[in-house]
Amino acid sequence: MTDIALAPPVALTQTERDRAIRRTVLAGSIGAVFEWYDLVIYAMFVPVFAKLFFPTADPTVGILLGLGTFASAWLVRPLGAMVIGAYADKAGRKPAMVLSALLMMVGTGVTAILPTYATIGLAAPVLLILARMVQGFSAGGEFGSVTALMAEQDPKRAGFYASIQWACSGFSVLLASLSAYAVNTLLTPEQVLAWGWRIPFIVGVMIGPVAWYIRKRAQESPLFATTEHAKNPLREIAAHDKRIVLIGAGVVAAGAAGSFMNQYMPTFAITTLKLTTEQALIGTMVAGLINTVMPVMFGHLSDKVGRIPVMLVFAVIGLLMTYPLFIWLVQEPTLAKLVTIQALLAFVMYSGYFATAPALLSDLFQVRRRTTGISLSYVLGQLLFGGVTPLVAAALVAQTGDRTSPGIYLTAIIMLSIISLWFCRRLGVR
Hints:
Elements: H1 14-44, H2 46-53, H3 59-75, H4 77-91, H5 93-113, H6 117-120, H7 123-151, H8 158-186, H9 189-196, H10 198-216, H11 222-225, H12 233-240, H13 242-271, H14 277-293, H15 295-305, H16 307-331, H17 335-353, H18 357-364, H19 370-385, H20 389-400, H21 405-426
Helix pairs in contact: 1-5, 1-7, 1-8, 1-10, 2-3, 3-7, 3-20, 4-5, 4-7, 4-19, 5-7, 5-10, 7-8, 7-19, 8-14, 8-15, 8-18, 13-14, 13-17, 13-18, 13-19, 13-20, 13-21, 14-17, 15-16, 15-17, 16-17, 16-21, 18-19
GO molecular function, one term: symporter activity
Family: Belongs to the major facilitator superfamily. Metabolite:H+ Symporter (MHS) family (TC 2.A.1.6) family.
Keywords: Cell membrane, Membrane, Symport, Transmembrane, Transmembrane helix, Transport
């Protein structure tokens, strides 16, 4: 089914057009900061959540339960992708983004004020899981709505605009790691356990009203405004794009796994490599800085030379470097090695490979069902290979005793994404 154009919108001057694009980019970007800040903060405080919400005789079991709660948010992301993604294709990208911002505030806010197991018993982990699931539901539709809105600002610069939210996500990693580092260095371990862990989540909640206000004032996508809207985007996807959704999920896999492997590294460094909490967070701050600066460069490059060439080069680099780097790290763990690996994962798998993925996903789907298709591909890839990566990596180490096993896992997923890129080429994506 082809897109059907509606009446063209009222023409804007170039100045008005530039101003509208800036507002739209800001509206999409601040939501990305909010979403990823919350996710990264939780990942960094998993050892704390394990003690406060999942107290067990075996610390490893507590860590796995804490990581399992992190992964639970991904279980409802497909539902969020279907509901909010379809809403964005029927009602508009803007109202979907406003809705997701409100839901993210709820998830983060509940986490910030939730009593611990010592206070309310079993209700504490149950409520924590529910809070993470609300956040996961909202995030399920967030990426697709923002990606469609950004990419549709100017088709000739779709790679650049779509990659901006990845730069903002990188900034959120930097912001989250700085927050976690400040809490862990300025407070005693007892203070962190008692109340200090709540501070970063309270900071996150404060971002929410700003995101909601800015999004209320954003402009709708010009392509969406001039295209006939799908009455049932999910049905259209099921009828026409099932295979494309799976291919898109395969493309997302390597970037998702690489990103969450980097977020798992502080927990890996503390629990497996026996480095200090302060040391474990330094690498994440460096990675966050790289991911703030570099993504738009490669998004812009993809507008010039194509999506596939940029992503394929970095996928192959990631395939060759990942496992050897883990061997190098575990032989004699040091802060310098940890920072080096996290910096390389950030540059290669996030900035180089993943920053171009939003524009590529946008290229795969028609405008009328684009947000639904992007959301489902992204969420499926993140569900199978992203949010579960910290849990799988920790479980592999615990079960096999092989501290390099996370590197083997990531290498296998990168190979899957290389195959998916080949299928994208056959679909006509350049």
